[in-house]
Amino acid sequence: MLLDPGMDLTLRPMRYPHFFDRFRDAIKNTWTVEEVDLHSDLTDLDRLSPAERHLVSRLVAFFATGDTIVANNLVLNLYQHVNSPEGRLYLSRQLFEEAVHVQFYLNLLDTYVPDEEERAAAFAAVENIPSIRRKAEFCFRWIDSLHELRELRTREDRRAFLLNLICFAACIEGLFFYGAFAYVYFLRSRGLLHGLASGTNWVFRDESMHMAFAFDVVETVRREEPDLFDDDLAEQVRQMLTEAVECEAQFAEDLVGQGVPGLTLADMREYLQYVADQRLVQLGIAAHYGSKNPFAFMDLQDVQELSNFFERRVSAYQVGVTGTVAFDDDF
Question: Is residue 129 packed enough to be buried (19+ CB in 10 Å), middle (13-18) or exposed (0-12)?
Fold first, then answer.
């Protein structure tokens, strides 16, 4: 089974072809940091109000280390326990994408924060900014939850792994990051920081696929070991997401507490609760909050972006990986 101890190396016969399909889809989504022009945002930064500048400052401080934390959990915990070469192919690709995100946010800080001391402070945010430190401590606690676990021998071991996987998919990539994306797209809806939004489109797509793969793993385990999924597990997941919402709500209060026109703390909390409910439903658990999405600009992210291809490459673009053309073909 998928969570059996060991590391199967055999790709044929393929036991989990849907994981391989996820890997191939991810390859099609290849992008590079060099395609994102952040310099167009510099004029906008000068136009921001003090409250908006504070929002952006806190946001880039979170971006500075957020994806590195996810990559650490992937390497330390996920890769060694998914006993499927197809699944590990995808996780290898995900690790590459996390590295691209880290590079993107490095470029973001270099462009937005030219002062070296200010950049150093941004990278130290997990230690010095309480709202970011709380989120980091939440992440570190779940990374450490599997620290001593080398093989998934017992039912309790498997449940611990599932909780770690669900935490990083639903709470961190699926809630913390979605909250961050909401701030970016709010600014874009006001005509600001289109360069940041352009790069975020790529990251948004990657993170959505990371979450989808993790939920595929959860569903596969559910089919193979349905006894792992009981009311106790569901309650643990609800409590986990509730804590994540509170962590992100504290971050929201930090970002918008100075008063950002058009973006209220109440709306941000409503959005976070709405996203948390979505994650619960995706996991087969009843919604907890019953909240609705207050942000129309986030609904637009479910629609493929339209763009002038001659001005910039669209984030809906995919790299072709199949098919052949012979030199004697008719055109």
Answer: buried
CB burial of residue 73 (10 Å; 0-12, 13-18, 19+):
buried
CATH of region 17-27+40-301: 1.10.620.20
Higher pLDDT, 134 or 147: 134
319: which 2 tokens?
Answer: 């790299």
- Domain spans, the chain: 17-27+40-301
Give the whole-angstrom CA distance, residue 149 versus residue 251.
31
Residues recognised as catalytic: 105
**Residue 235 marked in a binding site:** no
Instruction: Round to whole Å and give the CA distance between 246 and 269.
Output: 9
Q: Across all residues in the chain, what is the average pLDDT?
A: 91
328 labelled as ligand-binding? no
Question: What pTM, to 2 d.p., does this model score?
Answer: 0.90
Check: CB of residue 93 under 8 Å from CB of residue 48.
Answer: no
